[in-house]
Amino acid sequence: MACRICTTNDHEALTHELAQEMWASCIDSDPGSEWEPWELAGPYWQRMFRQYAAAFLKVAHRDPAHDG
Question: Which top-level group of life is the source organism from (predicted)?
Answer without folding.
Answer: Bacteria
